[in-house]
Amino acid sequence: MNGKITTSTALCLCALATAPGASAGHGFYLGATAGAGDVMATDLRQRGAVHLGPGKLPIDAEGPTEHRTRVHLGSLQLGYDFAPWQTAQSPWGITPALELEGIYIDKHSPTGNMPVHPAFLGTQYVTVPTRAGLLMGNAVLTFRTPWAESIFPVLGVGAGAAFVSIRGADSANPGEPGINHFNSDPDASDTALALQLRAGLNIKLGANLHLLTEYRYLTIDATRYTFGATDYPGEHQPTDRWRLDMARQIYHLMTVGIHYRF
């Protein structure tokens, strides 16, 4: 009886080991992707104060950016594919992977339309030329199906840190033409949590080369920046340094890339 059990166990192990893709494809890979998409509208809030003699006039302007702003991005990945979860009897299989990814989102310049409190000051228009660098840890699942031998659906999730940089911000008011209220220091940055969901296709081009096309839903948590005071001697009253809050950013992205497996 023990001999039969041992023989059956050995046959099961052999079936797993010889299943299509069960021993192939696991190991390290390098990848590079590029893409484009949109960052959706978000809320901006500018706060500070204008110096008026012995006192100060508090300023609070808040409003949304335009509906969406076009963005471009690139990324690099270093990952490891684990052995597939699959038996010889099933055409279905799953290959799990862990991945470290660096993402760069190029300059994009949303503008906030921000009514000011007190209301007699009108509307502030704040443009924030933004770039973001992200370091993400991803978990990825690649699915083998009975319908294609070289095209595999992919799902992934990721979490990490986003370094968001604003360079050359402009805070303008039609009532004060030619004035950038951040002029003494229009640059600032902050770091926030980033999360992403990925869904797409992995297309096998050769023994080691794969084409990857994906949709990504990426979010960056709320960030806060401090810009310089308004500095136009003789032309504008002095001010405090300005604080700018940016609400959560949501990106819808499409990417295409290559993975090389070792």
What does this structure look like?
The protein is mainly β and 262 residues long. It has one helix spanning 2-18, and strands at residues 27-40, 43-52, 55-64, 68-81, 93-108, 111-117, 123-127, 130-144, 151-166, 170-172, 188-204, 209-220, 223-227, 242-246, 249-261. It has a single domain, classed as Porin (Beta Barrel), CATH 2.40.160.20. The chain is built from 1 helix and 15 strands, in the order αβββββββββββββββ. The strands form 2 sheets. The chain has an 8-stranded antiparallel barrel with strand order 1-4-5-8-9-11-12-15. Strands 10-7-6-3-2-14-13 form a 7-stranded antiparallel β-sheet, with no helix packed on it. The two termini are 44 Å apart. Residues 9-221 form the Outer membrane protein beta-barrel domain. It comes from Isoalcanivorax pacificus W11-5. Residues 1-24 form the signal peptide. This is Outer membrane protein beta-barrel domain-containing protein.
Summarize this, please?
The chain is mainly beta and 262 residues long. It has one helix at residues 2-18; strands at residues 27-40, 43-52, 55-64, 68-81, 93-108, 111-117, 123-127, 130-144, 151-166, 170-172, 188-204, 209-220, 223-227, 242-246, 249-261. An eight-stranded antiparallel β-barrel has the order 1-4-5-8-9-11-12-15. A seven-stranded antiparallel beta sheet has the order 10-7-6-3-2-14-13, with no helix packed on it.
